[in-house]
Amino acid sequence: MEKQYVIGVDLGGTKISTALAELNGNILSENTIPTNAKYGEEAVLSRIIYAIERILEVTGKKVDEIKAIGIGSPGPLDSKKGVIIETPNIPFKNFQLVRPIEDRFEIPTYLENDANAAAIGEFMFGAGKNTRNMVYITVSTGIGAGAIVEGRIYRGNTCNALELGHSTILPDGPRCNCGNYGCLEVLSSGTAIARVANEHLKAGADSSLKNYEVVTSYEVFQEAKKGDKLSLDVLNKCLQYLGIGIANIITIMDPEVVVLGGGVSLAGDIVFDRVNKVVGERCFKVLRENCRVVPAALGKQSGVVGSVALAIMESLEDK
Ligand SMILES: [Zn+2]
């Protein structure tokens, strides 16, 4: 039977989203179920298998019509071995995820960290379409990234390339969750923006942010747009660090486009204007004039579209 479809699985700490798509990326059906992470790794594996069975049933497709399964998961992981090494929100510890799924369905299955999968999604179907060299960066509670080099995902030696969020920007900066100090993530993620604003408020700074019971990065962006000085100062600093991180990656990778996704990028011009200014100041002219920093196009769908794109890209490369 001709294999005309792929399945993408976006594995997250709270939910698993699964899609069945045509080889052009057109999604025919999608389902989302709770991950039930608290029941352990075998239980999560069973949930993934259930989600795949369910989508085959709903669409009436047979196993031998499916060319590949792509799974995007938090890492670190080893995509060559199909093993999830460890994740903060799902109880995996050196867990072989790919083999049991291949054994169950007899469909080639590929595992990739979620930022890389989203990068492949933006490259094939989003803001990186028609490029050959692209970097994707997601800025929300944390910072993740993935790179496409000459049309292929760049994994590196241990499949953990582009851990941009944990590159050092400020040697004596605050301590990051990873144990290092002054990582990009601890300076300019959504979590960092909220933390810095709250520190200033606690120290008695005057600001319209005082009117909120809880201040997250969302409130900081809202008040900055209304002209609140503290919010503007906090963003100025945090987004300067983000700009430096992006200028560094442009200097290293020389991409055609940097695609910026995640919650923070949704704040729009205030983010892109600041980042572009820093890139303009810090990158060689030839690099900055040939690279655009643009918003991601896939939004909330980036996870599931990324997993679908991973399955398509891998199955094409296997030929
Ligand atoms: Zn770190």
UniProtKB/TrEMBL annotation:
Task: Give the record's family classification.
Answer: Belongs to the ROK (NagC/XylR) family.
Residues annotated as transmembrane:
none
Under InterPro entries, the record lists: ROK
What's the name of the protein? Answer: ROK family protein
CDD domains assigned to the protein according to its UniProt record, in alphabetical order = ASKHA_NBD_ROK_FnNanK-like (cd24068)
Question: Source species, please?
Answer: Clostridium thailandense
Q: Which Pfam families match?
A: ROK
